[in-house]
Amino acid sequence: MSQHRLVNPLVRNIRALKRGALVRQAVRIEEEIKQGMKKPYNEVIDVSRDNPHATGMKPMSFSRQVIASCIYPELIDSDKMPLDVRERAKTLLECIGGSVGCYSDTIGIPIMRDSVSDFLTRRDEGVPSASGNIFITHGSDHGFGLLLTMLVRGDRSPLVGVLTPVPSQDFGNALVASGATAVPYYLDGQQGWRLHTEELQRALRSAREVCDPIALYVINPGDPTGHVQSRESMEEIIRFVYEEKLLLFANEDHQDILIGEGCMFISYKKVLAEMGSPFSDAVELASIHSASKGFMGEGGLHGGYLELVNFDPSVQIEFDRLISLLGLPIIGQLALEVMLNPLQPGEPSYEQYQEKWDWAEQLYGSWLTMALNLCVCRFGRLRITHVLVIFQEEEKLPDFFYCSRLLEQTGLCVCPGSDLGLPEGTYHIRLCIMTSVDTMEEVLRRLGKFHKQFMKDFS
Amino acid sequence: MSQHRLVNPLVRNIRALKRGALVRQAVRIEEEIKQGMKKPYNEVIDVSRDNPHATGMKPMSFSRQVIASCIYPELIDSDKMPLDVRERAKTLLECIGGSVGCYSDTIGIPIMRDSVSDFLTRRDEGVPSASGNIFITHGSDHGFGLLLTMLVRGDRSPLVGVLTPVPSQDFGNALVASGATAVPYYLDGQQGWRLHTEELQRALRSAREVCDPIALYVINPGDPTGHVQSRESMEEIIRFVYEEKLLLFANEDHQDILIGEGCMFISYKKVLAEMGSPFSDAVELASIHSASKGFMGEGGLHGGYLELVNFDPSVQIEFDRLISLLGLPIIGQLALEVMLNPLQPGEPSYEQYQEKWDWAEQLYGSWLTMALNLCVCRFGRLRITHVLVIFQEEEKLPDFFYCSRLLEQTGLCVCPGSDLGLPEGTYHIRLCIMTSVDTMEEVLRRLGKFHKQFMKDFS
Q: Where is the Aminotransferase class I/classII large domain (chains A, B) (predicted)?
């Protein structure tokens, strides 16, 4: 009996990422190293995605201690954990029904929505946030995916479109699976991956020929670009979606890690509120954040939220119903809770732990900056623009070829730009700098050596 | 701007469960108790779903110690955890990239597929299991939902149908969201919720008038019924799906907890293999299991798997692609790993921990049985059949009315049978016995007292 005919065509349209082949190649190489095969390197370093804990970033002790104590409550009743940790764990444990093994309510553990809205009100300096507009998720991808599932019409005619930035991770696949289509708009690589409203207008015009564009998706701070939008740029975006009657999906997952002088994060919600009428009452904004990125980097734990602003209450009821179909992992919510409510100066035992907390903060701040500086400086020395010239001359060579050869010869795994939606002929690689300074040193050493040889071989 | 028109009609069709209203009522009651309002009870007891840790079941120490140590690796390097725990945690931590914060590979952490297939080969006494046929999931609902998403055609005409047992939890909603439709088949409440092939044939005939039925969904051991199928019954089912060219979805989530004399779990995969040709080569079987149920009861952690048997390899490639869109929580996988590989006699330090392990096993075994015995005995004394008579006379009274009144007057939350798909006029309540003996005693005390009064008031 042939069941192949049964497969949903939407699933067939999900694009296999080239990074997948590189990861398989990396697994094979690691296996060979384990079996004693001689290589010019001892281990594979994978900086092809933002997976900071895998490349040396240390998790936040306080959060890990709290979560471990919730998992194994004997730690609360002993002297094996600091007092703050035990108190926080005890409160959380009561809140989740006494065990991390309890099913979470479909709206999240009881305090979760309030925690998020309190955090948002603090962050946005008083712009109000109602807990009823908060939806707890598995993380950013999950929130975005659910929203799309809800907004895509069943009949699929005309096709629903979402304006989506290029470069961006796993470009379009979430859209494809939900039955929508990604309409690419291109960030300006010559200007630090800035977003131009003219490009949005161009993308929207072309979209209207093939689909019904309903939303604009922005990622700020940019992933993987690191670009941070100015308030003026955000106001332009808001006017654009207002005039074009588009929903605004803002991925603000990286709000805690900004690199570069003078960079400051402002949320879309704050800018929208401060623009006043007619924008602040009309623009439907969905904003996502999670514990997977930022100073937590807890990608393996799955905790995030989505806030809806100016959405019709009846739509939110439908959304609640959809979100209730898949339960929420407890541990990710605990991580999110600690992220939203870190130990603060003035709390009874803050003095005792200030050192650790400061240390963690400084560490994350400093290595990020250092890593970036290193990166810029080394790339400068390599005159990386030459690679582009070579690639353009040898058009048969794709970015994947470069990445695969780099991995085989040096054990360094980076991501080909085409996986991020970048068009043919632009030849980019992406490497994630969220790693330790030591690792970054080694990454750049391997890349530098390989690249010089590559230029010799192909020039 | 009205966005309501945008909502996916599939989402609108998701049925709100009445249990939701009861949970909100319970939250309100708990709030009132907290504010000092006098009630004839001190706390709400919620046995409306299988959430054993919430009602007193103790988690398995070994598994919790291992997970806590992976979360906070300082525990591995100290003497705060037993040696076995530290060794197991160390191995797992290496396997997941050094931190539970690392993103999991989309096929699960590296050892996971092999762990599952080794477990299945042992469990099924040699019937082979290939790791390539294993897919790691968030839990049973997730595996089932993804499979449906993959198998539902984009055009939705004719509607794809799945034969689904009644009673069963969250009946049909997962199907609705994926664009399929649930075709109910009724289990025989008069015979311990047995499954009759004649009823399947009736359901299939009626289904073919309105949709294209592609699969039969069975839950064995039954949830919420507890019924365990005999080998003969399973063989009948296999012949039925073979003849009718249906896929077989087997939810085998409760394989570790069987209550009743002479009950024995055999997997559908084993029965299928032992039936031989033509069945064993042709019937496409999807079987799911998770750490949410059974002796772990870790519903909050989200770890499960799905095994495909006799599926077309090209379908499995598509499935891999779909599953890769949503990452997997690490902690759930750790729980699953420990569940599949508990400490065994013969392992170097088994003697040291045998006591704990035996204790845990005995506890789970004994209180389940005791709880059931209590339950049967108490219901006997209440002559519960009288309730049905009352309900039938007072047809305006739905099961929800009984549940809501029970909750208000006694603080006991149970689930109305209509939430499980049971038809109007049959009036069932469901209470989950996966709780401690003490809690079950209290549950039955409250139910008994209420029920007597209820009979007086409404007879």
A: 84-447
* A179 to chain B: closest CA residue: B154
- Rg of chain A (C-alpha set): 23
Task: Give me the amino acid identity at A305.
Answer: Y
Q: Do B3 and A54 make contact, defined as CB atoms within 8 angstroms? A: no
Q: Which CATH architecture best describes the domain B93-340?
A: 3-Layer(aba) Sandwich (3.40)
The CATH class of the B4-57+355-458 domain is alpha beta
Residues of A (393-432) whose Cβ lies below 8 Å from B? none
For the domain made up of A7-57+356-458, give the CATH fold: Aspartate Aminotransferase, domain 1 (3.90.1150)
pTM of the model: 0.89
Structure tokens at B215: 């699969």
Among B11, B152, B318, the residue with its CB nearest the CB of A150 is B11
* CATH topology identical between A7-57+356-458 and A93-340: no
**Domain ranges within chain B, ordered by starting residue:** 4-57+355-458, 93-340
Q: For residue A156, which residues of chain B lie inside 8 Å, CB to CB?
A: 154
Across the interface, of A49, A152, A245, the residue whose CB is closest to B1 is A245
Which has more pLDDT, A67 or A453? A67
Q: Quick check: B199 contacting A, CB < 8 Å?
A: no
Mean pLDDT value across residues A390-402 = 60
- Quote the mean pLDDT of chain B: 83
Q: For every residue of A1-61, which 3-state class applies, written as one string?
A: CCCHHHCCHHHHCCCCCHHHHHHHHHHHHHHHHHCCCCCCCCCCEECCCCCHHHHCCCCCH
Structure tokens at A379: 């790339």
Question: What's the CA gap between A2 and A24, in Å, rounded?
Answer: 29
B61 to chain A: which residues are within 8 Å by CB?
A: 72
